[in-house]
Design brief:
Layout lengths: L3 E10 L2 E11 L4 E5 L6 H9 L6 E6 L2 E2 L10 E4 L11 H11 L4 H14 L15 H13 L5 E5 L7 H18 L2 E6 L2 H7 L2 E6 L2 E6 L1 H6 L4 H6 L6 E4 L4 E4 L2 E4 L2 E4 L13 E4 L4 E4 L4 E11 L2 E8 L2 E8 L9 E6 L4 E4 L9 H6 L1
Parallel strand pairs: 3-8, 3-9, 6-7, 7-8
Antiparallel strand pairs: 1-2, 1-4, 4-5, 9-10, 11-15, 12-13, 13-14, 15-21, 16-20, 17-18, 17-20, 18-19
Helix pairs in contact: 2-3, 2-4, 4-5
The structure holds adenosine-5'-triphosphate.
Length: about 350
């Protein structure tokens, strides 16, 4: 398996640039997720890596080799379109053999490769079983096996779980992660679902408008987002943003809004200009009867083990995460205050988090 590197990669369709000057290094054996909203350029990036789309400019390296202008069939990369698109009338062995037969491999070669892949995926005991008798997890293994028999340097997957219902999808996510750990294949996976990305990825690249905004481990993406877009796209719901112009700065290390004190982490103390704003996640806020930012309850969402309460305040709508047992009523007057100093300050003119270099080293 191999490292994949893209350098200054760009793709235009006529006047429209779908992927802008992208740079990434996907490490050997890494599970790497391209995440972003519809139309942000994820699939186009993946298709360029696969060789299904030629770059307008820039390079793609597979290991040491520059493959940007090679055909898909010359790249040693397996594109897994749909994890469940198997041939239902064939048994497991024939499903695994089929792509090799099509490529004209000898009978012995096919047997060796199928048995090797089946062993690696732990499906060697079901080689003679019918597809219809298999569990979802085993079907997923067979689908990956079909790509693995080609002994590719990397796997590419475009929303492979997209058509499944939520519960099955969660289960298949777990299976896929386990499988990746077992076979250790470099994998690039496209999704618009941030929860799927967070649970699968070793690292995530968040994209918007054809650009890669941040590529980091899930916990860094969540806790140290580099831009407002990343902070709001990641999390359910995303981060709250409050302009500093609403506040009074009585000392270096805090800002007061409506006499509610928000402690500012040390690295942001210099950044408290009025044009900037701060971000705070719903779980770092709490509802209180006093000492808080005054407002009223505008909405309540039940999310299983927790509730998200939307409070309308003079600084805008603020989302607060509470325990499900917390009793609240629409239109009830409440107050909101921070439960810690987990705050990030963003530059009001660029929407980038300030001190992001410091944050990423920290
Ligand atoms: P989705 O999840 O909806 O597939 P995406 O992030 O994968 O979104 P892409 O499919 O990469 O996005 O598309 C990026 C942009 O490029 C979109 O605006 C799309 O309409 C445009 N695009 C993609 N392929 C072509 C094409 N062959 N011709 C013209 N425009 C295209």
């Amino acid at each position: 398996m191999s490292q994949i590197k893209i350098a200054n990669l760009q793709k235009s369709f006529g006047d429209f640039t779908a992927v802008k000057n992208s740079n990434l290094t996907i490490k050997d054996k890494e599970f790497f997720v391209l995440l972003g909203p519809s139309g942000c350029g994820k699939t186009t990036t993946l298709r360029m890596i696969a060789g299904l789309e030629l770059p307008t400019s820039g390079e793609i390296y597979l290991g040491e080799e520059e493959v940007g202008m090679l055909r898909a069939s010359e790249r040693d990369i397996a594109f897994v379109f749909q994890l469940f698109a198997l041939y239902p009338h064939m048994n497991v062995r024939n499903n695994l053999s089929f792509p090799l037969k099509m490529q004209g491999y000898s009978k012995q070669d096919i047997k060796n490769r199928v048995e090797e892949a089946a062993k690696l995926l732990r499906i060697d005991h079901i080689l003679n079983s019918n597809i219809s008798s298999l569990s979802g997890g085993d079907r997923q293994r067979v689908a990956l096996g079909r790509a693995l028999v080609r002994r590719p340097k990397a796997f590419l997957m475009d929303e492979p779980l997209g058509t499944l219902d939520a519960e099955f999808r969660e289960l298949m996510c777990l299976e896929l992660k386990k499988l990746h750990i077992e076979i250790g294949a470099t994998t690039v996976y496209v999704t618009h679902d941030q929860l799927e990305a967070m649970s699968l990825a070793d690292r995530i690249a968040v994209m918007d408008g054809g650009e890669i905004l941040q590529a980091d481990e899930p916990s860094i993406i969540y806790n140290k987002p580099k831009t407002k877009f990343v902070a709001s796209f990641i999390g359910s719901p995303g981060m709250n943003f409050i302009s500093l112009e609403h506040g009074i700065s009585k000392d270096q290390s805090s800002i007061e809004i409506d006499e509610t004190k928000f402690e500012i982490p040390k690295q942001f103390e210099e950044s408290k200009e009025n044009k900037n704003y701060f971000g705070i996640r719903p779980e770092n806020l709490t509802l209180t009867d006093e000492d808080g930012l005054k407002g009223f309850i505008y909405g309540v969402e039940y999310l299983g083990s927790r509730k998200i309460i939307t409070v309308k305040t003079k600084v805008g709508e603020i989302k607060v995460r509470t325990d499900v047992s917390k009793k609240v009523k629409i239109n009830e007057n409440v107050q909101v205050k921070p439960s810690n100093n987990n705050i990030i300050i963003f530059d009001g003119s660029t929407d980038k988090s300030l001190k992001s270099e410091f944050m990423n080293n920290g």
